[in-house]
Amino acid sequence: MRKRTLVTHPPDVKVPADNRPLVAPIYQSVKFTFDDVGATLEQFKGKRAGFYYSRVSNPTLRQLELLLAELQGRDACLLTGSGVAAIAMPLIALLKSGDHVVHFAEQYQPTRALIGRVLRRFGVASTMLSIDDLEGLERVLAATPTRLVVFESPTNPALKIADIERLTASARRHGALTLLDNTLAGLHNHGQFDVDLFAHSLTKYASGHGDVMGGAVIGRAELIDAMRSDVSILGPTLDPHAAFLLQRGMKTYFVRWDAQCRNALRVAKHLAQHPRVERVRYPGLPGDPGHDLALRQMPDFGTIVTIDVAGGEEVGSRFAERLELFAIAASLGSTESLVVPPALQKVRGFTAEQQRWADIGPGTVRLSIGLEDVDDLTADLDSALGQPELD
Predict the structure, then answer these.
(1) Cα separation of 288 and 191, whole Å?
(2) How far apart are CA 338 and CA 271, in angstroms?
(3) C-alpha 215, offset from chain centre
(4) Which residues are registered as beta bridge partners of 217?
C-alpha cells in the first residue's frame, strides 16, 4: 500500500485468545464488517452473532447491558443516551393511539410531561393519581382498559415509597404492564418484584462522577426485543465512549452507594433535630411514613435527603446559597453533595389536590449526599441554617 492508503487502512493487531486485556477496550467504531455478504445478511436476520452498525448494537454497549440486566435481576437491557430517553423509549415503543396510561403526581417532571403532554398529542390518554392511592388505582384499572402503569419508588423529590407488590399485582390483574423508574433506588434494588420494565438514569449512580450521561431500560427479553427496532429508528443511542465510562463507574458502584447511604442516614438524623428544619423526609428514619414499607422492600434507603426549611421559599433559597460543600446543581448521585432549592423544583399546572399529592412545599429542599466526610457535611448544614440572614 502507498502511504496515503496506509493511513486509512492501518495494520491489524490481533490479541491472542489466551491474552485478554484486563479492561475491555472501547469499540469506538460506528461500523463493523464481515468478509462476505452472506455473513452480513445472517447477522441482519439474527441468525449469527456479531455487529454491523453501532446505532443498533456495539460490543462496548453490549457488555454494559449484560451487567445492568444481571444487577437488576432481568435478562435484557437497552441503553440510551440519557435517563429521560430511557423513560421515553418504552412509552413510544409500547403505546399507540387509543391506549391509556396511569401515572402519578409524585413523579419526575419530564415523565409527567412526556405522558400528559407529548403522548396526548398522539392520542394516548392518561390518568394521574397519588402513589398513596392504591384503591384509586384499582378503581381506574377496573373501569378503564390500561396498557401501562408508570411509577417511581422512592419518588423524586418527596421520597414516598410505593407499595410495589400491591401496585404490580393490581396492574397484572387488569392486564397492564408496569414501568418503574428505579433511579433513586439504585441499580440493585426491587428486582424481586413483578415489575415488567425498569428505567434508570445512568447519569446518576452508574456514572457517579457527574461527567457522563446515559439511560437504561431493563426487563424481560421479549419486551426489550420488541422495543429494539423502534429505538434503532429513533436513534437515542449511547456513545461507546460514554458506555466505557459508565462501565468504569460501575466498578465502584457499591463502594460509593454504601458510603453515600451511610452519610445520608447520618445527615437525616442530624437534621431531624434541627430547630430550623420543619420536616425531614428520608425513608431510613423510623418516623418516616414510608419507613416500614422501605424496610420490607429495600436493604438500604438511598442517598437523597429532602427537608422542609422553616420560612418558605426565600429562606430555603438563602440556605442553599450559604452552603459551601453542596453545589446548587441538577441531578444527583455524584461524589460531591448537591442541593436543589425550592424555586428550582416548583410544581406548576397542578390543582390544589394534586399539589397535596406531590407534597412539595414552599421550603422544600432536596439534598443529594456525596462522599465528603459526614461531619463536614453536617457542620456545613448547621452553618447555613444558622446564618442570621435566614431570620
Answers:
(1) 23
(2) 16
(3) 7
(4) 78, 199
pLDDT for 220-230, tens place per residue? Answer: 999 999 999 89
**Which pLDDT band, with edges at 50, 70 and 90, does 346 fall under?**
confident
Instruction: Say if residue 225 is in the same domain as residue 329.
Output: no
Which helix (H) or strand (E) is 253 found in, with range? helix 253-271
312: left (phi over 0), alpha (psi -120 to 50) or beta: left
Nine-digit cell at 344?
428550582
- Each residue of 99-117: b (16+ CB within 10 Å) or e? bbbbbbbbbbeebbebbee
Q: What is the DSSP letter of 248?
A: H
The model carries a pTM of 0.94
Q: How far apart are CA 172 and CA 149, in angstroms?
A: 10
Number of domains in the chain: 2
Q: Per the structure block, which three cell numbers stand in for 157?
A: 423529590
The parent domain of residue 223 ranges over 37-250
Q: Are strands 304-309 and 364-368 parallel, antiparallel or unpaired?
A: antiparallel
- The answer to whether position 27 is within a domain reads no
